[in-house]
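Each record in this resource describes a single protein on a pair of labelled lines. The shape at a given residue is found from the number at the same position. The record below illustrates this layout:

***
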Amino acid sequence: MPGRYSRGLTRVSLAFFVMASSFPCCEIRQLLVHIYPGGSKAGAAERITVFYGRRGRPVKKPRFIPAELAHQWARKLQARRIGTVSVL
């Protein structure tokens, strides 16, 4: 097929592709919220950790969810101002 696809992958472009994809990339994350019942975020203060699942609801154990969805839920949880929101 002449034109754009006629050359195929050369050694240089194939080597670049392999090197570019070698960086660690995690597309799944955990979403959690730290709630401070006393209102103080001091180091010795009591802290409750709440994990969130794919549907944006609290779950008992930490769950992995897609990164895009985790960040979307994190923005919504930050707007509620219930505690410190973390995406790990």
